[in-house]
Every structure is written in structure tokens, then in C-alpha cells.
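QUALITY CONTROL LOG
STEP: pairwise intake check
CHECKER ROLE: data steward
CRITERIA: each record must contain a sequence immediately followed by its C-alpha cells, with no blank fields

ENTRY 1 OF 2
RESULT FIELD BELOW
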Amino acid sequence: MGRAKGYEQVGAATMLRSDPYDCWLGYRTGQETEHPAWRRARCAAVASRGGSEVLATARDELLRGLSGVLGVVPVVVPESSTEPHVLLAEPGSVVARGVLSHLPEAAAEASELCVVVDEEPAGGSGAGRTIITANTDAGCLHAVFAFLRRLQLEPGARDLSLVECTPNTLRMLDHWDNLDGTVERGYAGSSIFFRDGRVTTDLSRVRDYARLLASVGVNGVCINNVNVGQQAAALLTTDHLPDLASLARVLRRYGITLWLSVSFASPIMLATLPTADPLDTEVRSWWSDVAAEVYRWIPDLGGFVVKADSESRPGPHRYGRTQAEGANMLAAALRPFGGVVLWRAFVYDCNQDWRDRSTDRARAAYDTFMPLDGAFDDNVVVQVKHTPLDFQVREPISPLLGALRRTSLAVEVQVTQEYTGQQKDLCFLLPQWHEALSDTLQVQGSTVRIARVVSGQHDQRPLGGVVGVANVGDDPSWTGHVLAQANLYAFGRLAWELDVDPELVAWEWVGQTFGVAEPVASTVVGMLLASWSIYESYTAPLGVGWMITPGHHYGPDVDGYEYSRWGTYHFADRDGVGVDRTVDTGSGYSAQYDASRAPVYNDIARCPDELLLFFHHVSYQHRLHSGKTVIQHIYDSHFEGVTRVEWLAEQWSSLEGHVDPIRFREVNERFQCQLANARQWRDVIVTYFYRKSGAPDEQGRSIYA
């Protein structure tokens, strides 16, 4: 842990270095002269009104940011000042109402919005004021960060006015942190919340984390692992609640609510009740009492996150009850306090017989939850992974996201790179998320963006949004790989705007983290945008997944899970490869999609190449739309993947002297690791499929046969 210091001496020049700990909030100075004189004069004074904790934080962040960007500490002036200044206007104030009254109706009805208005006096002298406001206190804080972002990225702009609005009430990160300080699927060190079975006593890092999240609009954090054991179950007791209340206070100042993962079996684990049956009156009473006690300590707790009947976790199925009956029991306990239940849809049989081709893990969420559409209480949100299996590098979007029409939804994405390089390999994930959520589907004859369905806009559901599995730890850079910070930033921008442009976000993150100067800016942006397809090219081909080493999930093992209880994923044999999920001859999974997708996925002639093996079992000589055979594609993509990783490493090496030495060295080491990993993937995959198929490589390249 700890932060690297100050400045680094490079040759005869002194290079100002942004600390990796600061991520995109380093506020690089040195741009002062790029801002017009009137802008610098206006930003030299700040007026604010409003006494809430969050508004006080917004004012402090505005002063801090302007000082960092412009190198001058602003003075605080009265709201009535006629001098040039930046005004932070409290929601509901006369100024705020005036600004918001001129917005389009769609923006005014948003769950949360933020507004920046550059007012220009007559004659265009620039001597007026800049107004920052929103419809909520947290929106004001987000507006401050949005203004500072544009100030850094567009220093010469005449007008920095903006309106940003989101329909997503839930913009949340799930931490899979354990009370002993470990992090399940964590690749950046230990927990920032827990040490030695307790909430950490030093909350300074939690405060700094809250700043990062607030800057991109995240409004909720669940701090403990969804796999809740005996130790973590006790978070609901007064042994831990005072410490959790202290942690919640830190988050609250940044407009972020605390959530807790709970075990469905808590009445048995904590109260020695003989059952956790959701229809048992004693169980329901116990949960009501627990909720009352938790909210006494943490009045603004967001609610509970629950993983039930999944991967040996206890749940309502043990008692012959439905997922809705289990969720609604908890919802009833939380309702008096405004709490919400986030009920994960990751429910499947994890004790499968690999010889049974009729069982298809991909079907499980839809088969379980579709019959329950409309049965969940209005303070229950079903949390659906954006893919039907488990965050593989290439899967179709979960059909459940477009099918549930009377149930509030949250889409879950994995920011931590469990199956996409584990923050050793570069893989910028926003293009993957964007591809899934910006697509459209057919709903009752109309074309609807998936983003609108998830947010609840299309069906006017009160709750909706995005949940991400967090990727931070106590590493000095938060994420281990400095460039993996881009995924954390991108998650926040996605959670605010589900169809946000990946290229725009990449430019934003790079510009705030490394600066807008060339050659760094365009080089790193290009690397980020290419990285997902590069990672896909040297790992699992054409939509199959799980060719990974069991347990830790890093590195290739083609049959590692193929004959295990967790499911079967590629069905490779001497004749072909792929999973038949068609209606006529396979599991029928393709029929779970809407009318625009189901016939495409079901038809081998129309199925997209990148998903072919997810939906069809084909021969190695099957010819893709690209014109290549399946086996030749496997050979070519894996050899080309290594070449493309070499390109990534070369691109980064070209920035030596343009990026501070500490970050340059750390990222360079990661690329050497990724290159070795890519070569191993290439050699294992092409050798495996050469041995299976017996088909030679048309290019005559070396295969370890």
C-alpha cells in the first residue's frame, strides 16, 4: 500500500507525474495558459449555497479541482457577487429552478441529472458566471466532476455547458470482499474494507475510493462477497453495525449508499432457527427485526444483495418455494425503511452430468425466472448477468434482459477481469458491454434498445440500472494494472449512460489520466479500443468459452471444465466443435430470444461467426462467413493474436520518456506477462485442435503436435 511521491527526474528535464493512486482525478497542472484569460478569471472565484454533507463535498471538490487544473486556489465569494465566478446552485434554489425549467422534458424527468451553464454577458466578454446545478445534491456533486472533466479535456473551449441525465436509479458496484481481507476474484491486492475479521479502522482509503466513484456517477457500493459464510453473516449484528455505520458515513458524503450481501440462511446461522423457509412466520418476523436494527444504525442503507440457490448457496428452493417468494420475504422486511432487494438471477444446476447433452447451463436463468415475471414485489430488482453463462470473452446477451417485462431489472457486468486477463492482460471491457446493451430487440412489434429495457424506461418500471463486480484492491494503483483503471472509469460512465460511446470514454480516461498531449493520448486510446478483440483472438474462439485452468481461471486448459460438474462448454471431438443450442437438434436455448434474434441464432447459415460455436456444433471444415474454415480461423486468430499483443507492447514501449517512469515500468512489465500468456494460449489451443481435427495449418506454422 501507499503512494509514490511527487516528481521524477528524467534526464535533464523534470517530468510532472500523476500518482497512479489518484487515477483520473490527478488534475494535471501545466494547462493554465491553454485556458482563455476570462475562463481563468471566472474559475478563480467560487460561490455556493446549501448545507448538506454532499453539497459541502461538492464545493470542496470544486475548489480542489480548480486548484489542480488551473494552479490557483479559488477564493470563495457570496452568491450575489457580480464578479466573474463559478456558482454551485443548490437544488430547489431560484437559480437551480430557473436553469432546470429550460431543459427538455426528457431530461427534467430523469432519475438524476446534472447541468452546467456558461452564462455569457452582452458583448461576449466572458465576464459572467458558470452555474453548476442538478435535481439532487448528489447530482450537483456529479455535475462538479463533469465540469472539471470538460475543463481538463477542452481547455480552449468557449462554452463548457452540458446536460447529463440518467434514468438508472441503480449504479452500483459489488465487492466480493471477505472479512479476512481477501477478495474473491480480486486481482489488485487485499480488501479496502476489511482486515482480520473486522471493518478496517482506517477509512481514508475508503474516502478516496468514494471520490473516484462519485466522479463517474456511481451511487451504491455493496462491500462484501455474495458468497456469504458464517463470518460475514454476522455483519447484520451489533458486533459489526457500529463500524459499518462509520463506513456508511464516509460513503454518504459522496452521495453513495452502502449495501450488504446477506445469506438466505441467516436465521439459521445467526438465530439458530430450524428453518429459513420464506413463508415461515418466525423467519419473516426475524428478518423484520434484523432490518429494523440495521436501519437504526444505517438509515440510508440501500438494501440487501442475495445470491440464493446458486453454486451451493442456500435459497428458497430448499423449501419448495420460488425465487419470488424468497425475494419478497426480504422485500417485506426492508419496505418500511425504503430498502431494496437485489436478487441475483445466477441460478443454475452446478452438479451436472457432462454426459447429459440435454442439460444446458445457458438456459437456466430464463427457465427459472420467466415463469415468475410480475411475481416480484416492487422493491425487488432481479440482477441479471449480461451474458447467459459467466462473463466469457464472447457470449450473446442474456435473453432474460429482454424477456422480463413486469420485473425491475439490473444488468450485471464484471469489471474485474476474471475471464478476460485478470488485470495482467489488457482488456478494455466497455466495447463488450456497449455491444450488448446498445443493441435492439423486438418487443410487441416495436424495436426497442436493450438499454431502455434495462433502465425501466420502456415499461416505466421504477427501478433499474447497472451493477458491476468491482476490480479494486489495496494495490497502490487500485487495480494492479494501471490501464485496468480504465474499466473502473468506464463502468461508471456506462452505469450513467448505458449506450455511452467506448471511444469517447477511452479519450476521457486517457486525457484525465495521462493528459491530452500526443503521442500518449492517441496511442493509449488505440491500445484500449483494440484490446478486447486482441484478447479474444488468442483465447477461446468463435463463441466457445471456459478453456481456462480450473480454480484460478488464468491461462489455457481446453478440457479443464469440459468433464466437470459445472457444465460442458465446447463438445470438441474428432469431427467438430461447438454446442448445439438449436431448437430441432439441440437444447432449444436459441428459442429463448426475441423474434429478431432467435431465427438468426438458430440458423447455421445466418448465425454470426463470432457466436457460431456458442449455438452450433460444426465440422472443422465448416466455412465461415469470412470464407475461412473453422479450423483455419482457429489457427490464424491465435497466431495473429500473439502478433497483436507484440504490437501492444511495442506501442507502449514507444511512449518511454512521455509517460512517467513508474507507470511506464509497471505497465511494461504487464505487457511482458501478457505476451508470454498469449504465446501459451496460442500453443495450447492450436495444438489441441490440430490433434483433434488432424487438419494442417495452411500457412505451415509450427504446431507442437
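ENTRY 2 OF 2
RESULT FIELD BELOW
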Amino acid sequence: MVIGGGWVLPTIYALGSLWVFVQADAHWRAARLTAVFALIATVGMALSIMVWAQFGEITPDPLGLMCAVLVSTLGWVIVQYSGRYLEGEPGQVGFVRAMLFTLFAVGVLVVSDHLFVIALAWTGTSLGLHHLLTFYRHRQAAQVVAHKKFLVSRLAELCLVVALALIYHATGTLSLTGLNAYLADVQVLPVSVHIAAVFFVLAAILKTAQLPLHGWLIQVMEAPTPVSALLHAGVVNIGGFVLIRLGELISLAPVAQAVLVVVGSLTAVFAGLVMLTRISIKVRLAWSTCAQMGFMMMEIGLGLYALALLHLIAHSAYKAYSFLSAGETVNAAREKAMMQTPAAERSLVRYLAAPFASALLVAASLAAWQSFLPAMQVPFVALFILALGLASLAWSEQELTMAQLIRSVLSAGVLIQLYLIWHLLFDGTVAAAGDPGILLSAWVVILFLAFYLCQIWLRLYPAGRFARSVYPWAYAGFYLDETFTRLTFRVWPVRFSPVQSQTLVNRFSAPQGKLP
């Protein structure tokens, strides 16, 4: 099996890092050339592998190929942006070294077939990112939040060590190929392997900022914008990638699936509510990432690995664009305000009809596809998520004209076809969709229907009793991060002067968005 784009991607980033260490005065030239060569070589290698595969010479790994191309593309964009963004800043050489090292570690992770190497590269990614997050070392808030992330990451890596030890003890191998061969011969997981799956899940939950250990992701806004883009578009998604890689294991571990679905769905709902209260574009994007990571964890727990992969790639591209274009938000808001038309009266019937209309569109599209491809099957939960997600396209602050209605229907129809095409083309690149069972499926359906109704009620009655009751809690992040923050300072405090330490404790123990 050929994993990813071979070792071309991490090798080029390793050579680029070495170039910067040897010739520090050429740091940006080295970074730009490294990013360009990495992109060209990775895309070329991916195309070559797919061509060779047609002749039966090799067995490609589409998941690794797609993620290697994604990493090289994000690396190229972020490096090009960083050179302009940091112009005139001190410490640029250290920034470039840490950026290239982090991209090297991510490259190793996506192309490796060995769980120990994946865990080691994941740790390296965290350490490189820690240096980038503390680029402005004089900013005490940056130091504190990076310290919180450092502790969460080390706890996640402890979970990985336990999981690897259990896997090796039970199977005698840490290779993904060997593990999948072992899983193909078992109907029920041994207890030790089941526990290992749970520890892999806990590591991913910690690394993807799931509630209530999410505070570091929300508060880490003191870093340069390209670092935020790298974190939210690439590094935080690694947990989803690793679990998709381990899809065969997760599908046989009901406890691990249940943990992913419950934690992920609750994170998606609560973070989604908090996001509605934020006005800072970067903080709003951070809460959006938290919600999206919860949604991805839930999809993996439901066995929707193809949907989770689509989510991972789309989220990476969207968040890279959102953070790197955050500076244009004010101009975009002004242009939108100048072109604003009178607001339409919000209708409960319209909001309630939207999910039924989108569900009919999804069902009709699937029936049309199945008339040509009778063997095509899409899990019910995936169709439910798709229909409910598309319902918001019918939400509009303006009077809905016939042209706008047609445009909304066409947009929803195109998105449905794109998803079904993705499902058809890439369903075989990941583990087969698992059966989450009635209880987990019902939990997701009920929870997200309640979330949809809650959003409707808040839009219809923004000054009502329910909104006034929910808003203070949502604005404070439901006070979920405070306990962990206090525990962090108590167990392993940041080494500042007594006055500074107390000031920072007061600041980060206050509800998010408020200062004492």
C-alpha cells in the first residue's frame, strides 16, 4: 500500500526547515520555495499514484492522498500570507522555523501507516504550534492560553500512550494495515482493544477542543492571524483525520461511538448557541470551529466516515479563507449595510416548512440517483443532517421573492448533488459506514430538532423571556471553562509575578467575553 503522497511532502518541509537553520537570513525565501515545491511535488505525486493505480501496479490510499494535497495547499497559502502579514515584526526567523516544523509534523502524520509515528507526529505538531501561539511573548494572555493548551495536549498524549500500549499488547502490531487485518478476523473486540478505542477517542476529544475543555481554542486570539488560520484550518482537524483512519476500530467499539456522539453533539449545540452572541469576528470563528469539530466527532461516532471526511476538507478550506480574509470583514459589512433592503416579517410557518421542503428535495434527489444506481445507499442519519443543514438556506432577513425562492431551491439542489457525488466517489476511501443503533440515532435527531426549534424561537422573539434567560448563559459560554481554568492555575500555574498571576486568574475565571 502507498500511503498518502509517499514521503515527498514531509521530506520537502524537512529540507526547508534545515535550509532556514543553516541560512537564517534567507528565511522567507526558503519558506516560500519550500511551500511551492511541496505543493507541486505532492500534487504531482498524487496524480502519478492515481495513474499507476489504473494499471494495477500499486494500491493507492485516497484518504492520505487527499489530505496530503490539502496540507500542501494550506501550507502554501498560509506561508505566502505570513510573509506579508509579519513584515517588520521581530522574531520572524523563529516563526518560519516553527511554521515549517509544524507543517513537517502534519505531513508525517497524514502519510504514515504506523500508529506510533502518527502519535509522535501529532505531539510534534502540538509543540510546533505552541511556539507559534506564543509568538508575542510579551503578551501575558497569550502565554496563559498557550499554557492551558499545552496541558490539554499532554493529557491527550497520555491517552495515546495508553491506547498504543493496549493495541500492541492485544495485536502485536502498531501498523494500521496490521491492525485492520486483525480487526477483519474478529466479530467482537477484546476488552483491552475496546478500551484502547475509547482512549483514542478521548485523545481526539481533547485535541479538538470539545466541551468543557475547549477554552484554549476560544481564548487563543493573541497569536498572529496566519497562526489562527493554521490552527483552525489544519491542526485542530487532525483528531478527525486520525479517527477516520481508525474507522474500522471505532465501528466495533460501541462505547467509543457513544462517547463521540454525545460529547460531539452537545459541543456542536452549545458552541453554536454561544457563537450567536459573539461580535468579534475571530472569536466568533473560534466558537464556530469548536461547534464544527463537535459535529465532526458526532459524524464519526455515527459511522458517517465519508461525511466526516467531506466535513474535514470543507471546514479546512472555509476556515483558512475566513481567517485570512478577516481584515475585510468591516468593509464587507459596510457594503452589505448599504445594499440592505427592508426586512421582512419573520414567519413561524416559513421556518417550520423549510426542513420539510429540504427533506423532500433530499429524498427526491436520492431516489433519482437510485433509479440509475440501485445499489447506492446513504444512511438515514446522514440524510437527516443534510436536510436540516440545508433548511437554513430558506432563512432570509428580506422579503422572499420568487427569484430568491428559486435561487434557494437551486442552491440546495446543487449542494445535495455535490454531497451525493462525494458519497459515491469517496465512500470506498474510508471505513464502511457503521450502524450507530437506534438510541444514538434518536439522540441526534431529537437534539438537533430541539436546536433548530430553539434557533427559530430566538429569531422570532429576540427580546422574549426565553432569549433573556438564555443570552447571559450563552454569552458566558455556559460557564463551562471556568472550572478547568481554576484547576489549571492551581495544579500547574504559569510562572508570573504574584500580582500578574492574580490578575490573570481573575481575568480568565470571569465569564468569557467579560472582564472583571
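INTAKE CHECK: passed for both entries
DESCRIPTIVE NOTE, ENTRY 2: Residues 140-171 form the longest helix (32 residues).
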